[in-house]
Amino acid sequence: MKQIVKKFNNIVKKTIFKVQNKTNNNFKIYKKTIFKVQNKTINNFKISSFNKYLITFIGLLFLYIFYLLIPLLYDKTWVQNNIEKKLLNEFKMNVSTSADISYRILPAPHFLIKDSRFLMHHIEKQKLIGEIKTLKVFLNQSNFFNKKKINFKKVFINNANFTLLRSDLKLLKKSRQEKFSNKKITIKNSNIFFKDNSEEIISIIKIDKSILFFDDKKLLNLLNLKGKVFNIPFIFDFKNRNVSKKDQEINFKSKVLKLNIANKSALKKDNSISGENIISFLNSKINTKYDVMDKLIIFESNDSKINNLQVNYNGELSISPFDLDLNIYLDSFKISKLFKVYPILNEFIKSGLLFNNNISINTSIVVNSNSTNQIFQNAKINFHIINGKINFNKTKFINEDIGSLVLNNSNLFLKNNKLIFNSDILINIENLDRLFSFLNINKISRKKFQNILINLDYDFLENQIKFNNVKIDNNNINDQLLTIIDGFSDNELNNLNKSRKLINEILKNYEG
Fold it and tell me: What's the pTM?
């Protein structure tokens, strides 16, 4: 019996231990499986370095945007007063701003002010000289938390109209000699209206873009302006190299006119100004030395060149009112070239600048040709502008062997976009025989006379001549002869062969 019980107990123990070991083994396997799943899940949820940087960047970006929006909390009245104060102290701009002020963060943080007014001190009072449609004041982003420490970075003006009288130019000249702000002022899409003291518009300058500031590295005032005057594009540069001595440099360029003007000047101890001006256009270069005393400019040149021809001149110029006296001397110059009208001259005259009641010009050009194959060897051309009218009265061309030609009652004017010259031309004959020989006129056609008076219109642009009246020795010619003369309407005055043919026809049909 004992043996049977002992065997039964051994069988039970073996069975229990076997189940226990199997259960423990399964638990260990399950436990290992759980740990593997947990580790795999943890590995799948691990954040990469790129994602960390991206989240940090987005967070910082939102913080930066919130920082940029801080000026929205500023009191609008404080902003308006602070803008006017800083524009005056830092930018030398006396601006009266409106209450229409908004804050923008693009393209850079700035205050946008609409409908402002630009003022200037004038005889102990404020004078309105400009209206600004859009004014932008860009901010330095260093400290928006303390509004009292806020600084302006630059100023942008758009769609403004400035009106200046002659008396205002003196104040501008004075401010121009002072140190500019080292913060840039940019002006775009604006206009400058220049008026005389009677409020009549003299000229309009359209500003495409203009920038002015003081360069701390080069220690000079800089002004660059790109615009149009009389619809002619130009670039204007101004430099003030030494504020204390008031040394200045100005450059004006126009590609359309192929014109470049450079000017350097210095202020002397006696407040007079000494300088040099160089004008380059086409193949010409005009170099002028000058002195300015009060409103008078005295100038001269001994080394200028026009189309590689040396030119000497001198004269005086009064600024207010504009009055020019100029004497020009040309040697070894073909007088026929004086009749050639260059496109640049056409554009300049068509601009209407010379037809101004406030301009007075008296110019004489003395020419010595010394050429045997020219109609005229010597000439004195007078050019006058008086009360907006242009004339060449008392201009004289001389042929030393034959006689002279004089212009009187002349007028140069614009009509229907045409440049017309009208004049009386008096031809005085001193030696008929030499005239006949010069023109190769046959003996049958030779008739005695002393002078010919012609009134004509000449279209410079079309190169057309219209003969209005012709008199020989103060006698009117017949209609038949006038019809013959009209046949030479396309004649070039400086063409010797055509001129000979014209005079031959006149003498041949003249009854005498």
Answer: 0.60
